[in-house]
Amino acid sequence: EDVSEGDLSQDGLEEGMDPVGFAGPSQKVVKPLTPEALAAFKASQERAGVIYISRIPPGMRPTKVRHIMGAYGEVGRVYLQQEDPKRAYLRRKYTSTKKPHFTEGWVEFKDKRVARSVADMLNAQPIGGKKGTRWRDDVWTMKYLPKFKWNMLTEQIAHEAAAHAAQLRVELSQSRKEQREYLKNVELARVLDKRAERKRK
Q1: Residue 117's CB: how many other CB atoms inside 10 A?
Q2: Which chain positions lie within coiled-coil regions (predicted)?
Q3: What distance in Å separates the CA atoms of residue 150 and residue 168, rounded to the nearest whole number?
């Protein structure tokens, strides 16, 4: 479900959504918690449950997932993983679809019992909706993640981002090394050509 310009922030992102697909409460200045508030927060985290969606239908965005899941219970946070940057580049280059695509996602329900029942009820079932709805015939593939908490996901994302950055550094270093080697060979070939030319004279 597309959003109107009025739903976008100045950065062109939906409110509460960062560039990699998080749709949830907007980021606010964090104030120190009182012991009572901290205890209440920990209790709410213990009550919450997370489901994993292994395939996101093409074109479905975090706000749409939140809207659909919200019909079954109170939703906390939603995170959808964007497709691989190389794949996204090729898709935008060779197709008319320019909007980001998402490959998998996690949805947090405030009540773990609701999360479990939603996953059991919707897994392998058509998304449905009114006739002509874009994803009517797509099928959900999801499972409940027992003992999985949202902070585990954020730690995983941070780890993968760090690993990706490290891989990029390795690739750039290798590219620079290959470039230096190429320039060295070009210079060597130029010197050898000059020597051969002098010998012919």
Answers
A1: 16
A2: none
A3: 27
The pTM (predicted TM-score) of the whole model is 0.61
- Looking at residue 145, its amino acid is L
DSSP annotation of 134: T
Which residues fall within 8 angstroms of residue 116, CB to CB, at 6 or more apart?
A: 49, 144, 146
Q: Which of 75, 56, 49 is nearest to 145 (CA)?
A: 49
Q: Kindly state the DSSP code that residue 26 receives in the 8-state scheme.
A: P
Per residue in 114-136, pLDDT tens? 999 999 999 999 998 778 778 88
Find the length of the chain.
201
Higher pLDDT pick, 8 / 57: 57
Query: Among the CATH numbers 3.50.50.60, 3.30.70.330, 3.30.390.50, 1.20.1730.10, which is that of 5-148?
Result: 3.30.70.330
Which pLDDT does position 144 carry in this prediction?
93
